[in-house]
């Protein structure tokens, strides 16, 4: 995602898992193709441990943002059902704060309220907090898109929707061509949308 909010998918890689080694292979490919990280301002990931570990090897100087949607799921999985309705908005107040200072204060309020009932969950949230608040470094109009991995998750949903009805593929190359066509369509749609917005603004 660029500073103007425009988006582009740069690469994909089929893999048998999400290990650190698998992610390093994908990131090293991007690096070799020119994405050296000098212009990167933020990298957003879900809760998979393999990718953040790989980032420390390939892009160690780029700030890392953890996805709030995935974090909220983790939080709510750890609480009793009767507490979910109160825990959820209290945690959301952290991510939806109007500044980093306000987000830190919202966490302190959350900690004071739930520390006794869920000490492990609160401690884990506190440990992850720096990477959950990295998006505050960038312009406020982009925060909504930078808090989560929703932008890329939509692409994954479309890949699953299109590939599941297929009985089989001839070979791995045919899988790559099929996925490439899906991602190319996303890039084209995003590019056309950006051009329309630019034309309207002009």
Q: Can you tell me about this structure?
A:
The structure is a single chain. The protein is an all-alpha fold and 202 residues long. It has a domain at 68-130. It has nine helices and two strands; from the N terminus they run αβαβααααααα. It has helices spanning 20-32, 50-58, 68-77, 81-95, 100-114, 119-132, 143-146, 150-163, 172-201, and strands spanning 43-45, 64-66. The protein has a two-stranded parallel ribbon. Strand 1 (43-45), helix 2 and strand 2 form a beta-alpha-beta unit. The mean pLDDT is 90.
| Average pLDDT figure | 90
pLDDT < 50 runs, ≥5 residues: none
The biggest beta sheet is recorded as: 2 strands, parallel
What's the number of extended β-strand segments? 2
Following the backbone from N to C, one meets helices and strands in this order, namely HEHEHHHHHHH
Structural class, please? mainly alpha
> How many alpha or pi helices?
9
Shape: globular
What kind of oligomer do you see?
Answer: single chain
Distance between the termini: 21 Å
Tell me the strand percentage band. under 5%
The spatial strand order of the largest sheet comes to 1-2
Radius of gyration: 19 Å
Helical residue percent band: 55-70%
Q: Summary?
A:
This protein has 202 residues and is mostly helical.
List the helices and strands and how they pair.
Layout (H helix, E strand, L loop, with lengths): L19 H13 L10 E3 L4 H9 L5 E3 L1 H10 L3 H15 L4 H15 L4 H14 L10 H4 L3 H14 L8 H30 L1
Parallel strand pairs: 1-2
Helix pairs in contact: 1-2, 3-4, 4-5, 5-6, 8-9
């Amino acid at each position: 995602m660029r500073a103007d909010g425009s988006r582009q998918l740069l690469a994909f890689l089929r893999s048998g898992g999400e290990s650190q080694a698998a992610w390093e292979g994908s990131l090293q490919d991007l690096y070799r193709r020119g994405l050296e990280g000098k212009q990167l301002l933020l990298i957003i990931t879900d809760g998979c441990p393999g990718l953040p570990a790989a980032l420390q090897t390939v892009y160690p100087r780029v700030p890392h943002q953890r996805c709030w949607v995935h974090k909220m799921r983790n939080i709510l999985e750890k609480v009793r059902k009767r507490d979910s309705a109160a825990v959820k908005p209290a945690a959301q107040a952290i991510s939806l704060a109007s500044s980093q200072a306000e987000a830190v204060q919202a966490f302190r309020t959350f900690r004071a309220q739930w520390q006794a009932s869920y000490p492990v969950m609160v401690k884990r949230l506190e440990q992850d907090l720096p990477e959950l608040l990295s998006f505050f470094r960038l312009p406020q109009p982009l925060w909504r898109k930078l808090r989560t991995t929703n932008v890329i998750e939509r692409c994954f949903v479309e890949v699953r929707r299109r590939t599941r009805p297929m009985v089989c593929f001839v070979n791995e190359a045919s899988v790559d061509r099929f996925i490439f066509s899906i991602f190319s369509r996303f890039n084209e749609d995003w590019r056309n949308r950006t051009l329309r917005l630019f034309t309207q603004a002009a």
